[in-house]
Amino acid sequence: MTLICWICVFVLVKIYEGDYSATKNSEKLWRFRPPSAILHTLKMATASFSGLQFSMSRSCIPSSQKIADASAVVLGGKSKIGSWNKLASAYNVASVQSFQRGFTSSSIKSVKSVTKATSESSAESAVSGLPINLKGKRAFIAGVADDNGYGWAIAKSLAAAGAEILVGTWVPALNIFESSLRRGKFDGSRILPNGSMMEITKVYPLDAVFDNPDEVPEDIKTNKRYAGSSKWTVQEVAESVKEDFGNIDILVHSLANGPEVTKPLLETSRNGYLAAISASSYSYVSLLKHFLPILNPGGSSISLTYIASERIIPGYGGGMSSAKAALESDTRVLAFEAGRKRKIRVNTISAGPLRSRAAKAIGFIDMMIDYSLANAPLQKELSAEEVGNAAAFLASPLASAITGTVLYVDNGLNAMGVGVDSPIFKDLDIPKDQH
After folding, report:
1. Which of 71, 119, 254, 281 is catalytic?
2. Is 281 a catalytic residue?
3. Mind listing the domains of the chain with CATH numbers?
4. Which of 324, 350, 372, 396 is catalytic?
5. Dihedral of CA 279/280/285/288: which sign?
6. Which residues form the signal peptide (predicted)?
7. 324 is an active site residue
């Protein structure tokens, strides 16, 4: 029936097609097409729409993609949008200027109504051929305490792709974070590509060092920084999310801590080393263990690692390099176990240096950024947005066959075997970025 309606609309438009203009007396004149042209139009319309019906009826294409693909073919829009706007949902419909050239306003209205079956609002930007669409998905990001780290950037990218955002914030930082949100301190950082503001549905207090209330020592329970907060162990947070929302689709681990990170490994104490492992790697095992029952099959889990897991980075001490190595090893094992149990994909992003508040605690972050600028294949400073976009990709159906991997988002620095800014290479003709 839909096909017949389309054919009728197409034929009527072509029958009455012509130069429509207003005369001096404002009389509207139509130039009718001859019968032979009408017959030709009818044949062409039948052939065209039969072909469209055939292409859309192929069982191998999901129904949602059929609509998106058909819309892209009809509208013929070309995308000239940046990395942020590529995250825009498929529901953002392209400009209809090219479409208007072949159809009258009445036919455009019909097409808009069909497109709106997968749309909530009209759009101003072009449709991307492979949009990242996470509409209807819910994400929990553990480790968001401000607006300038990778956790915030990942939340923002997931939100830009349509996901609902829940966050877990370290208990001692919770009051400051929530207060900053209420007072609008983060409003500038919350703006999404479409101009709207990222909404955080709920903020949960979380200390991922403790699995359940029985493990919490008395000095932590009575610590004034934890006063007023409850149900903040990993088990309790997972239970609270289940009670509040039932299920989630995306789990993000964006937290780490090494109390002796500034100490060389040879000077690191046992307690300092084990604390780094506990907070930075086992916390991910615990998080996935407790959230796995409420992760929808086909969902995605993502963590953040660093190249120190496999390369020597002097100054990144206190057992943190060991913790990142453990995290990457655990990623592979968890990918197998979670994949077999719940069809959950588990990946980690090895991100380059970023001037976040957490990174500044290490003490040499500016040096590492300068080193990357001088030696990476791409001579530019890494942005948190680029890591966020990579996470959105890993969480999306576009990465449906990717699991157990370390994805490097570091301008290619991981591929380098030497520092080309060394005086040893001064006589080599090494290309420099001229931009």
Report:
1. 281
2. yes
3. 138-425 (3.40.50.720)
4. 324
5. positive
6. 1-18
7. yes
